[in-house]
Amino acid sequence: MILELDGVTARYPGAERDALTGVTLGVAKGELLAVLGPNGSGKTTLIRVALGAMKPAAGVARVSGRPAHEWDRRALARVAAVVTQREETAFPQRVRDAVLLGRYPHLPPFTAPRAADRAAVRDALAACDAEALAGRWIETLSGGEHQRVRLARALAQEPELLVLDEPTASLDVRHEMALFEQIRSLVDARGLAALVITHQVNLAARFADRVVLLSGGAPAGAGTPANVLTRETVERVFDWPVAIQSFDDRPQMVPLRRVLPSHRSS
Amino acid sequence: MKWGGLVGAALLTLTLAVVLGPTRIPLGELAGSEIVRDLRVPRALLGFLVGGSLAVSGAGLQALVRNPLADPFLLGLSGGAGLGAVGAIALRLPGPWALPIAAFAGALAAMALVYRLALVSGAALDPRVLLLAGVVVGSFAAAITTAIVSLSEAEQLRNAFLWLWGGLSGASWTTVGVLAVYLPLPLLLLLGSARSLDLMALGDEPAGYLGADVTRVRRRVYLAASLLTAAAVAVSGVIGFVGLIIPHAGRMGWGHRHRTLLPVSFLGGGVLLVLADTLARTAVAPRELPVGIVTALIGVPVFALLLRRWVRA
Fold it and tell me: Which of A152, A176, A181, B310 has its CA 20 to 30 A from that of B225?
């Protein structure tokens, strides 16, 4: 297991209730785990605890067997790369330089990027089909292009574990499918472990090997998509009536209307 | 090429600063002249060190608070230093070092107060709170300074005014020596944080996941920038615009990587201040303009030109 959470409970200072309660999960090499849950279910907190940015109140999060909050940050960034939901662009930057930031955990202090670093940047851009963007300014990218560049930066870290927080938020259907296919092929081809946080039930069901469902910070199911994503569970967690159908042997959810169109009622 | 130009500009301005002055000295007699040896050379070197320190400090702080408007004096340091200096002038503290030491102490006191206020929100040193704390501490110190100045006599008033607009007339080999010993530590601290500063532009959380120890970097950069500014203000008063404009000019020419930007800022800041000081000494000789006025008069138009070119590109 590259990443393990064992009975993790976490609470923000001053908060009235736990942001996470008793969450247990694991991600191994060559595996894509999706953490699913509605807004406010503790998904982003889970990343913070998993990567040692926040210390759990109970339980433990381990990266490669070592408690996450004990890792030196630079060393951890060589093992685990995170594509956060948001980031700032206070000063303009070109794509090539932005991806080069992914090499920083590998660079000794006071050292200029070496040939190997430039090669890693090129490979990462190629793997994300973003070579043509290298000279562009970050602010001129579309949402889908920017996500590809951020994924390339994460790959430039040459991590064993890739963590993505809502990577398809604000992407249209073509770009969200393309991104998930990209992640899936990275997991399959390079043996990466991937943890994808999302509220997109159908994408998770199509691409993930296993899913963990979170509800109010607590686990509400874990296992293969077919086992976890039943109508009862999804309805309870997302608090909305759904129908579950099967497509490619994967469950797919169709949200139902609670108020039926008037012309149908008779 | 760009580097060559910058180094060339540095050498040229330093040479001009030594050759030009209110007293005309023939080129052949420069080497033997006491005016050159005891006044112009140390003054040029001091100007270069001060200008460089202010610009590096500005570059670091802009990245730290993720705000392109930040400058070394935004965080209350000038207010504290001004209060210290004016206090020393009003109390007629004796000795050549009374004023710089009082200014330095004032700057550090302001820094400590701002830092303490910014920690109220927790140990994270929130950049927004830091900015606000800097502005209020600076304003408070400025109010007391003005109160002291308004109650003091005419000659003291003039001294205080000149100091508040900055000047390098206190330059000597001793001040140059003190700075040369003092500056390397904060400069190296900042240069050592260069890569973390690049990451901080993304925001705290992404920077942390890319390996930056955000809290530690922020403390270190704040401390180093404050130490640079406090020293600069102690020997030369409040010299504005260098720390705001030079880092931006550097970004336009050299990009955002602090490993390059910090050295570029040092050279650029040195060039601007030495040039400004040469003008301040010679334009209305035998009198002198406060150099802060000249940095504004040169810096702002040059900056406006650069900005236009940059926006068009």
Answer: B310
